[in-house]
Amino acid sequence: MNEWFKKFFGQLKALWAKWSLVQKLILGGIVVAALVAIFLLLRVSSAPTAVKLLGTPIKTDEELRLITNRLDTEGIPYEVGEGNVLYVKDERTAMRAKGILIREDLIPKGTDPWAIFDMERWTITDFERNVNLRRAVTSAVTRHIEALDDVDKANVTIVMPEKELFQEDQKPVTASVILFPKPGSDLVQNRKKIEGVQKILKFAVEGLLDDNIVITDQNGVILNDFTNLADFDRLEKTKKEQKLIQDLEAQYRAKVLKALQQIYTPDRVRDLNIKISMDMSKKLVKTEEYFPVQMKPDNPNTPYDDSEIAPSITRSKTQTETKWEGTGFNPEGPAGAEGQTAPAYKDLQNMVGKMTQTSLTQNEEVNRRAIDEERSPSIERVTVSVNIDGQWAWKYDERGRVRLTPQGGIEREYLPVPPEELKQAEELVKGAVGYDRARGDAVSVQNIRFDRTAQFKAEDQAYFRQQQINQIILYSLIGLAVLMVGFIVFRLVSRELERRRRIAEEKRALEQQMLRENAIRQAEEQNIEVSMSVEERKRLELQEHAINMAKEHPEDVAQLIRTWIREE
């Protein structure tokens, strides 16, 4: 086979070398045309011969059964492809089938209802333009809402009615939103975030009002019903106010406890109660002040105040004076009729009188200042109560030992806090909380004993346990000393007995040796042969050698004997 391929390619090379340039180009064009034809054939053969009826597969068999039964009733041919996807023969048949399914409400759940308008056409109607506009707005609003951190998914539906000729006939734009919050989000309880979603809808859809927006959660609970949330807002405001008061009380409590515990130790200062009453109402206070006029400012180079202040400045002044002199005028009534003057005033007729009237009108100007301020919140009253415990001291006898009660416990003496220290502590607390007597603040520092029964019991047990341990250690040391002394005495006695026994044995052996040597010597003098063992001969030789050594080197032998005695 390889030889055949080599022969075939060899012939092609020879033939290619014989061809001219034109022939080579013609061959190349034929090859390219063949490749293009094969590609087009594959593309056309792979294209579907039918059109999808719906863009998404049908999920349930029940929905597929209802749709196919309806298509069979209408006589529309179809095919069911892989994944329950329906196919029809052309676009016209698909449009007819979609219209029937929409009319009969057979569109499967999860299918985009706007997908029926996704068709390529040469022309488009106004209705389709409005549908596309609504789709674009809905899609943009959905993306904006889902872009929020607290929203996992959002379903948005916007209804834009057709424009009517008369305004009273125009139907309003409405919108409904279903929000799916992310786990751990406070979207449902946070009013500000719901208002943010509502504003996104209002600014995205023209003509949309707050009353025409419904925002619910996945459970169907309306979230933007702010008119019914007045009680909820009031509770939230109350919680925030209480938290503010608690934080302020905790701040004051920590400040006072830190100051007192550094002086009296934390064990003696435990109870501190603080109560702050605050006015959370919002007040607008308007104040108008009048103050004198400064005629000359103070010179800062002088050690005293040399400014000149006038209570007021005269702006205008009016003075009038009226003088009158003569008899009084007493009407008598009409002619021929007697006057109506009382008898007491008739005696005053024909008397001459004088009158002087003076009036003065003077306008003064003073400095005036108008202050408008808003106060909220403010502290109304602060009450603080602190309990400082005294000290407990152990009692000792004349020998410095701890006294014990008849019940077997340690006898203690309570030392209360002096009144002077309580007064100083009270002043310290007043300074820490900003005491204001006019405001009605109250500070109480008392000295009340703490119940330390459990503490004293633990201290007594620890003390007696330590004493018991000390006694055990002392007795153990005494016993160990006795044992050591006994061991030393036993050792000395044993060594002394051993030494005496060894001396006795050496003395006995020396006597026996001397007796034997004397016997041997006497036998030698009498020329009697005596048989000696090897050990006896060696001992005898060693003895003679030691005697000779002692005679030749007496100092060395004496030092050796001292060493032996010292070791023993």
Question: How is this structure best described in words?
Answer:
The strands form seven sheets. Strands 1-3-2 form a three-stranded antiparallel beta sheet. Strands 4-5-6 form a three-stranded mixed beta sheet. The chain has twelve helices and 17 strands. The mean pLDDT is 79. 47% of the residues lie in helices and 22% in strands. It is α+β, with helices and mostly antiparallel strands and 568 residues long.
Keywords:
about 575 residues, alpha+beta, three-stranded antiparallel beta sheet, three-stranded mixed beta sheet, about 45% helix, about 20% strand, flat
Global shape: flat
For the residues shown, what is the average pLDDT? Answer: 79
Helical/strand content category: alpha+beta
Query: Percentage of helical residues?
Result: 40-55%
The percent range for strand residues is 15-25%
Distinct helical segment count: 12
In brief:
With 568 residues, this protein is α+β, with helices and mostly antiparallel strands. It contains twelve helices and 17 strands.
Q: What secondary-structure arrangement, pairings included, does this model have?
A:
Elements: H1 2-18, H2 21-46, E1 51-52, H3 61-74, E2 79-80, E3 86-88, H4 91-103, H5 126-146, E4 151-159, E5 173-181, H6 191-204, E6 208-217, H7 230-264, E7 269-279, E8 283-291, E9 293-296, E10 308-310, E11 313-327, H8 343-346, E12 352-365, E13 367-375, E14 378-388, E15 391-394, E16 412-415, H9 419-433, E17 442-446, H10 453-525, H11 534-552, H12 554-567
Parallel strand pairs: 5-6, 14-17
Antiparallel strand pairs: 1-3, 2-3, 4-5, 7-14, 8-13, 9-10, 11-12, 15-16
Helix pairs in contact: 5-6, 7-9, 11-12
